[in-house]
């Protein structure tokens, strides 16, 4: 088990120690259950009154909450960011694959492997693939012909990286995700579907994290592009030729149709649906279950969907929605009548 002193955690977070700097910390825990040897944090000032009851060995707080602490404290600018950094430092998550290449892995003779590469059981690395230094490929993964994985990138079990796909440095891909599968491209000739080969690829930048069971389609002609520092949650569909800008975060279950361009630093709430061939401006926030049918050219917070109601209330609402067109016509007729009366 990793254990660090409060002094070491202060270096990691840039925090100021109030208390014993030699205190050993081995884990992060919630404030209401933290105990000896653990550190916790406070992000909501309304809970400051409970700090005196906390049994953690140390607490990460802002200066304004320091007076409430009855134990060692680490004063930081942002306790939640400090929590993230400390959690990384104390992380005990195992590697997706043991050091070295498993005997059952199949690695093409002309694949290029960097230094300290680890490849798990039954993984397949095809011809011309390139894996940078310290890449980790989990059990059962497939790396297609000519695919590239940058330094320190990690794939958990059963990830499929199709031919020609490029991942940058320090990426993390969770289990069963598929990157580079065919986009939904077909022509119709007299009722018969004709498949359009998807000849683009997927280009993913550095420090991108992709959740489990997510699909990112390759481009039809140009490439599907995900810029640096993007985070994509579980069970998502990113269609062909989508472009996601730097620092954007997208929550689980979201579907993005083809050729949509999402700007930098956007936040897309879970279970949202984005129509194809639209553009989302930098800094846009779409709340959960948002249905984005048109381009959003200005930064702001956007919402759609109807909050949960009882079934009886929902039936009334649905009935009224279906009558909107009729009500609109009647309203216009009344307005016209009023105009005539005023004349």
Features:
single chain, 343 residues, alpha/beta, Udp-n-acetylmuramoylalanyl-d-glutamate--2,6- Diaminopimelate Ligase, Chain: A, domain 1, UDP N-Acetylglucosamine Acyltransferase, domain 1, 3 domains, ten-stranded parallel sheet, 4 helices, 15% helix, flat, EC 2.3.1.191, Hexapep
Structure, explained:
- One of its GO terms (molecular function) is N-acyltransferase activity.
- Catalyzes the N-acylation of UDP-3-O-acylglucosamine using 3-hydroxyacyl-ACP as the acyl donor. Is involved in the biosynthesis of lipid A, a phosphorylated glycolipid that anchors the lipopolysaccharide to the outer membrane of the cell.
- Keywords: Acyltransferase, Lipid A biosynthesis, Lipid biosynthesis, Lipid metabolism, Repeat, Transferase.
- Pfam families: Hexapep (PF00132), LpxD (PF04613).
- This protein is of the alpha/beta class and 343 residues long.
- The protein has three domains: 4-89, 3-Layer(aba) Sandwich (Udp-n-acetylmuramoylalanyl-d-glutamate--2,6- Diaminopimelate Ligase, Chain: A, domain 1), CATH 3.40.1390.10; 106-302, UDP N-Acetylglucosamine Acyltransferase, domain 1 (3 Solenoid); 311-342.
- It contains four helices and 38 strands.
- The chain has a ten-stranded parallel β-sheet, with no helix packed on it. It has a ten-stranded parallel β-sheet with strand order 10-13-16-19-24-27-30-33-36-38, with no helix packed on it.
- A hairpin with a 2-residue loop joins β21 and β22 (192-195).
- It is flat and about 85 Å long.
